[in-house]
Design goal:
By secondary structure, the chain is an all-alpha fold. The protein has helices at about 5, 30-35, 40-45, 60, 70-90, 100-110, 115-125, 130-145, 155-160, 165-170. The chain has two domains: about 5-60, no CATH class; about 70-170, no CATH class. The protein has ten helices and no strands. The chain is globular.
Length: about 170
């Protein structure tokens, strides 16, 4: 694998510009590999959500017409509602989905059959660890709560997987 083949999966490097749309990375392939090796797969596995956020141009930051599909008031209301759903589900324990133990995941993360089948196929394809699968289930439970869905549907699983899929190309090198 050479430095050009790494461009499929733009991730940070020592100089911070690897994969940047306008600024060239100054790192060698060896430097990128060394930088990536600083965090082990098991450490990365403990992070619930992996997102790559593209840089925003200054001119776009200062414009007031940046559009969002939902305004912050609507998002806040959805989050408050999801937390209320979790509060009712878990009782007075003040538990949130992120803190579920494996036994509780089995109890509260009920999947529709299509969702279970989909998760099994993707987990096999990407060789997800048990910890990764549990993270996906907990994030899926939260996504379902945001939609006020009692069970986890296939599209909830698909969205949660999108938040973890970056780890495999990055750490398989």
């Amino acid at each position: 694998m050479n430095k050009n083949s790494l461009k499929e999966y733009p991730h940070p490097c020592r100089c911070g510009y690897y994969g940047h749309p306008t600024k060239p990375c100054q790192c060698s392939y060896q430097e990128i590999k060394k930088y990536r090796s600083k965090l082990s797969g098991p450490i990365i596995d403990r992070i619930d959500i992996h997102l790559e956020i593209p840089p925003v141009e200054f001119k776009d930051l200062i414009k007031e017409n940046i559009k969002s599909s939902l305004d912050s008031k609507t998002i806040r209301e959805k989050v408050i509602n999801a937390r209320e759903i979790q509060s009712r589900r878990y009782g007075s324990s003040l538990k949130i989905n992120a803190k579920l133990k494996p036994k509780e995941i089995k109890k509260y993360c009920i999947l529709e059959p299509k969702a279970e089948e989909f998760l099994e196929k993707v987990a096999d394809k990407f060789n997800f660890s048990a910890r990764s699968i549990h993270k996906i289930l907990k994030v899926s439970r939260t996504i379902a709560d945001l939609e006020e869905s009692e069970i986890i549907l296939k599209h909830h699983i698909a969205e949660a997987i999108q938040y973890r899929i970056l780890e495999k190309p990055l750490w398989q090198n």
